[in-house]
Design a protein that fits this description.
The chain is mainly alpha-helical. The chain has six helices and four strands. The strands form two sheets. It has a two-stranded antiparallel ribbon with strand order 1-2. α1 crosses α5. It starts with a helix and ends with a helix. It comes from Saccharothrix lopnurensis. Pfam families: zf-CGNR. This is CGNR zinc finger domain-containing protein.
């Protein structure tokens, strides 16, 4: 499946925010934003960091499968509603913006991630999920070709498969 690049990057940023430590400070959140190709306007202060971690808590339920996912995304969109427009800043190709370029970083991140999750839900809601390893609740966006991802990382998948192998080997004795 080919994701809309705007929706895919924004949905992946949403999952990264959900997976971030809720006690993350401004520096950690700035690093996370930059690691995901998001360019914040200046630094974050403690209040803005709290805004982002509170927003992450609101994004989190979208990664749980269920019939209410569309309603959750619509509520996020309603809280961030603005007029979408095409931007060409910084010599970049035309791309969509859902918040003014000069808005605060938390405001822009909220609009970006809500729109990204909306794109993902409209393209294929099964691409948003949580790791299937017992005890792991990591959120992910499945960008695999076949759309069959069940684990957040290869490490989690290997743990499940090794545990299953050991269980079967123990039963065979």
């Amino acid at each position: 499946m080919h994701f809309n690049p705007y929706g895919g990057a924004a949905a992946e940023l949403a999952s990264a925010l959900v997976n971030a430590d809720p006690g993350s400070g401004p520096e950690e959140l700035l690093r996370l934003l930059r690691e995901h190709g998001y360019q914040p306007l200046g630094d974050l202060d403690a209040a803005q960091a709290r805004e982002l971690t509170d927003w992450a808590a609101r994004l989190s339920p979208v990664f749980d499968a269920g019939p209410g996912r569309v309603d959750l995304v619509n509520a996020l969109l309603a809280d961030t509603a603005s007029k979408p427009y095409v931007s060409t800043h910084d010599d970049r190709a035309p791309h969509l913006h859902f918040a003014p370029e000069d808005a605060s970083t938390p405001h822009r991140v909220r609009a970006f991630t809500a729109a990204g999750l909306a794109h993902a839900v409209c393209d294929d809601p099964s691409r948003l999920g949580r790791c299937a390893r017992p005890g792991c609740v990591t959120a992910y966006v499945d960008t695999s070709r076949n759309g069959r991802r069940r684990y957040c990382t290869t490490r989690c998948a290997n743990r499940v498969h090794v545990a299953g192998h050991r269980r079967r080997a123990g039963q065979a004795r």
